[in-house]
Amino acid sequence: MATSSQKPRSTDLVAAVRKVAKAKSDTDTIDESEFQAHLERALNSPHRSTRVWRMNCGQIVYTRNGAKNVFRGAPAGSGDLVGYTIGRLGHGQYLGSAHLEIEVKARKGKLRKDQVARQKAAMKAGWPYVVARAGTDLKESVVAALALIDAAILSCQQIGRKSVPGEHELRDALAEARL
Fold it and tell me: Is the pTM of this model over 0.85?
């Protein structure tokens, strides 16, 4: 028979339940590469006015026929998906073309310093650099990312506007619009 000192305390049970819930929520998130592949496919669909591709950053040094070669990728901080807008963004609006970069992150992923610098440079130059985050549902995450990207493109191409609102402002606006 267990003594009262051996019974689990309610605080221990609460802590255990929270630990299991946290572990479950961490494992329920979508894999970043899976989210990126689906987002790329959605952005390149025929009815969209965006074209993007996967772009590696940095450089690779390799040897070929005894000679040292260097392959240089995109500049440090560039988005995972790089591309352009074609000039139309739904409802027949002509918006002009623009460079576009999308940094894909897991739900809790953080931007590196070079990515933050790249995002600031993009905002200053007036082209969209969007941080798309994977959530717990793949379809919802892709739809939310598309809405965020469209909002960034629209805000960059408004007459007289030179920068993109910050990621939090766009998320707040999308939440208010219930997109």
Answer: no
